[in-house]
């Protein structure tokens, strides 16, 4: 006696075969692939064409993303808070860092949850066409805004170090605000083309199962011709990563050469011990070098974190050519996972750098977290807490023509024998 069929899959296949045998004319009109699709249930059919509903690496990626989110969200909120709360922190350099922190917060608070949800349930996409546009637009905008902010910050640092006299007129808070406005406006405009190529895609029902598409297969993906997407990705990678990083590298090379020349001149010079301006000048040069080192490390980390992201995009734009090469396709899958981790890591690493390399930021972070009332405290051997001070020179007479370039603040003043406020 034959055993009963204990497999639901075998039962489905038997039912499918019986149906096909009863309709031989229909069977003759189907290709081998169509016959296979016809015999699949809905979940199997979706998995065949869209892949697994849940990413196989969801759990480790989720844990990693949550750690990055915790550090990045807290760090960037602290960065925005100390800059917004204390007037002393509202300098041209810090305005760019504030803009960068806002970009990072948008990625962490809006982008990361969307990606985690998609890794948990890749389909159907529940936010509709508007949600798809928003997701694509968000990632494109912050991608462009981040690199443009870093580029503008590097140009500002170059002018401050290599052309200090010009910095008095160029490196100002008003100018920084205008540049940041232009950066975000350009980012929004440049995000439109790629956003317009995306939409909701649904796969058709198997032939013989009726007309129309499966609503449960809705995914947010490319819906326009692929050559348009490939062209946009390759152009934006060139304009918003390769050229800016090349420009930034050249700027910091010139900054390094300038600082080297200044150290050589300082070594040769022999100022008088009681020369206030020379002593103050050396102190400000040291501060300037510390800020430059911090921003240089920020750029290095930015390049390291964003390189996998752009590599992922370029590889995807050539997917038609590499899909038949199994090893290259497997390498792409690893690059895709790594690029996501480094993409979000870039949003968390900046506040860590500020805390490690800037005394002022470190103390401001402590002040915000500990909720102590901040008071400017004069120090001799570390960076000044006060960028803008009300300084009396009655008891400390200083010669005139003494230039001060505070940490990250390129505002100049002269030493006088009366009390002066520096805005």
3D architecture notes:
It is a single chain. This protein has 423 residues and is an all-alpha fold. The chain has two domains: 31 residues, no CATH class; 305 residues, Rhodopsin 7-helix transmembrane proteins (Rhopdopsin 7-helix transmembrane proteins). It contains 14 helices and four strands. The strands form two sheets. A two-stranded antiparallel ribbon has the order 1-2. It has a two-stranded antiparallel ribbon with strand order 3-4. It is elongated.
CATH class of the largest domain: Mainly Alpha
The mean pLDDT is 76
What count of helical segments does DSSP give? 14
Q: Could you tell me how far the N terminus lies from the C terminus, measured between alpha carbons in angstroms?
A: 97 Å
Second rung of CATH, namely the architecture of the largest domain: Up-down Bundle
What is the total domain count? 2
Provide the structure class.
mainly alpha
How many β strands by DSSP?
4
> In CATH terms, what is the fold-level topology of the largest domain?
Rhopdopsin 7-helix transmembrane proteins
Domain G-protein coupled receptors family 1 profile: 75-354
Pfam family, one: 7tm_1
Family: Belongs to the G-protein coupled receptor 1 family.
Subcellular location: Cell membrane
